[in-house]
Amino acid sequence: MWHEFSYSFVFNTLNLQGKLADALHFFIYDTIKIWFLLITIIFAVSFLRTWVNTEYVRAHLQGKSAFYGHVAASLFGIVTPFCSCSAIPLFLGFIQARIPIGVTFSYLISAPMNNEIAIAMLFGIFGFKITLIYIVFGLSVAIFGGMLIEKLGMQKEILLDVKPIDAELEADLVKLTFKDRCKEAWSYTLDIFKKIYIYVMLGVGVGAWIHGYIPTDFIASYTGEGNPFAVIIAVLMGIPMYSNAAGVMPLVEVLTSKGMLLGTALSFMMAVTALSLPEALILKKIISLKLIAVFFGIVGFGIIAIGYIFNIIL
Questions:
Q1: pTM of the predicted model over 0.85
Q2: Quick one: pLDDT at residue 96?
Q3: What is the pLDDT of residues 70-97, one digit of tens each?
Q4: Is 52:90 a contact under the CB 8 Å cutoff?
Q5: What pLDDT band is residue 143 in, cutting at 50, 70 and 90?
Q6: Which of 3-7, 13-17, 126-130, 208-212 has the lowest mean pLDDT?
Q7: Which residues contact 167 (CB under 8 A, 6 or more apart)?
Q8: 128 pairs with which residues across the strands?
Q9: Which residues does UniProt call coiled coil (predicted)?
Q10: In percent, how much of the chain has pLDDT > 70?
Q11: In the chain, what are the domain boundaries?
Q12: Report for 16-20, 224-228, 273-277: range of highest mean pLDDT
């Protein structure tokens, strides 16, 4: 319905033709589609989140087995709407709660890579199958990346003197009525939407320009099947950038439509959202350069591996 409405408005009402019409049609259709998906899925996740708060998660992770901790921390990353930088305060909270360093890194890796905004937009653009595979691989990178950092015994590489919480945390569940949960979820959804809707428009706008004006052959020649280093190039291109999934996902849709392989495009998106220079600069105040290098190395390797695996199986 939205597609027909956008098409009729651009080509019939405005009577536009050519590249400008293609770009404007893409912009209107994708903006409306992505806004709708964001509101719907963020509300659903926010509603489920009303049963859990961060204090509960911190308390729940204390004293659990190492592997359980990695899995739980990685899954918690899905329901926290944080980018690579905004996930750091909770990362510090985990350290303060004496949660093992590897588990804290499992969360730090998972939060920006697997947040609900990325999942919602991925589902809307590429469907259930691609979204499910992405989540499985994203969680795998977070779980095994955290386990590897734990194995390396890098606790001493934490520079910040974080005072531990001596008292045991209480795992109280949030008690609200159904109406209160809906009200809280809707309020949170609107708050998130107000913060990111402009990034969606910017991302879709850049995507619409590429869709309408950049020749398919240009992108396919550098990032298509013919270039074995395309995934590595995409990751290196993504690290200096700093954006959230709302801004970069529309670009992924356009780049794949122009000939970039899906695995290469997803690696680019993961590098933008999970690894960034601002994140490294903030972490420099908290952990050593050695640990930052290990963290970026592990996550970067995992993202590259996922890109090549996606390109092989899809």
A1: no
A2: 66
A3: 898 888 887 776 666 666 666 776 776 6
A4: no
A5: very high
A6: 208-212
A7: none
A8: none
A9: none
A10: 77
A11: 27-313
A12: 16-20
C-alpha 204/C-alpha 32 separation (Å) is 10
Nearest C-alpha neighbor of 62 from the set 172, 156, 168: 168
d(CA 143, CA 94): 16
Q: Which of 21-35, 51-65, 231-245, 253-267 has the lowest mean pLDDT?
A: 51-65
Dist. CA 91–CA 110, nearest whole Å: 11
Phi-psi map region of 161: left, alpha, beta (phi>0 left; psi -120 to 50 alpha): beta
d(CA 85, CA 283): 9
How high does pLDDT run on average in the chain?
A: 78
Gap between the Cα atoms of 186 and 44, Å rounded? 9
3-class SS string, the chain: CHHHHHHHHHHHHCCCCHHHHHHHHHHHHHHHHHHHHHHHHHHHHHHHHCCCCHHHHHHHHCCCCHHHHHHHHHHHHHCCCCCCCCCHHHHHHHHHCCCCHHHHHHHHHHHHHCCHHHHHHHHHHHHHHHHHHHHHHHHHHHHHHHHHHHHCCCHHHECCCCCCCCCCCCCCCCCCCHHHHHHHHHHHHHHHHHHHHHHHHHHHHHHHHHHHHCCHHHHHHHHCCCCCCHHHHHHHHHCCCCCCHHHHHHHHHHHHHCCCCHHHHHHHHHHHHHCCHHHHHHHCCCECHHHHHHHHHHHHHHHHHHHHHHHHHC
pLDDT at 187 over 80: yes
**Span between the terminal Cα atoms of the chain, in Å:** 29
Beta bridge partners of 158: 287
Cα–Cα distance for residue pair 161/248, rounded to 1 Å: 35
Q: What's the residue count for the chain? A: 314
pLDDT over threshold 60, residue 169: no
- List the structure tokens of 59: 């308390």
CA distance 30 to 112: 23
